[in-house]
Amino acid sequence: MDLCNLSVIRELMNDAGISFRKEFGQNFLINRMIPEDIADACADDANMMILEIGPGIGCLTQELALRYKKVVAVEIDKGLIPVLSRTMADYDNVTVINADIMEVDLPALIEEYAEGMPVAVCANLPYYITTPILMRLVESGVDFRAITVMIQKEVADRLVAKAGSSDYGAITAVLGYYGEAKKLFRVSAGCFTPMPKVDSAVVRIDLYREPKYAPKSERLMREVIRAAFEMRRKTLQNALSAKLGGYTKEEISSAILKVGKPSDVRGERLSTEDFCLLADALYEIKH
Ligand code: SAM
Known about the structure:
Blueprint: H1 6-16, E1 28-29, H2 33-41, E2 49-53, H3 59-67, E3 70-75, H4 81-87, E4 94-98, H5 106-114, E5 119-124, H6 130-139, E6 144-152, H7 153-159, H8 170-178, E7 179-187, E8 192-193, E9 200-207, H9 218-230, H10 236-243, H11 249-258, H12 272-286
Parallel strand pairs: 2-3, 2-5, 3-4, 5-6
Antiparallel strand pairs: 1-8, 6-9, 7-9
This protein binds S-adenosylmethionine (SAM).
């Protein structure tokens, strides 16, 4: 069954008595080559489990099932579950779970299904919840080998931005702590039904197997990043003075100087490593 064929998609959805649900960010792929390319790119070893988020009617799921040992697909829309039972009937290595990925206990799910296999994440993510899902994945503590996602092109540009560029933001700095993001390819809006207003891109994040940075307080490092970007137009010193509780302006200024940055530097100039050093300098003031 060609699950990227528009007539097939319509027929499957009509038979199930469902229609596209905008609130779940449902834009399904209709270009066969895209799920093939994403499935090829998301892991380096066939002997792996892939966690898919939002399988829809299963166009990417089936490509994953053909390439990897096991696929666990978490879909929020219960109307799609009978469709997936039909489209995935021939793939005995696919398990579909009807759940919200934001509610799932990820370590427990991996423990239950992976049976010791390495795990990677693969998804054509719903636009409305891209950043929360990415943060949930990296903060879950699960040792994902890689996270490969199709997301809005502008968000992809942010994920791979270099410090100092206009696309660089809090999500870039925080994700940089967990792994390295690479943009793989761009996908035009015409490859989806219904057609979204924006183009997409596929990004692969390779998570560090060993932590690359070791801030004294991960929580403080994250708070510093959040505060730095909440007031982007201000200098880092002013942004942190306004948004980071518990430190005087002088303490913030001395911490910024201690990490070798000028006192009028803006937050967007700091790499993930710089933020870790800055958080350590602030930590040491209080400990
Ligand atoms: N994988 C399909 C494809 O590529 O054609 C569908 C991708 S569509 C952009 C996003 C999918 O994620 C939809 O099936 C939607 O119902 C599902 N979804 C949205 N929010 C979700 C959530 N919080 N947890 C799990 N699935 C979700």
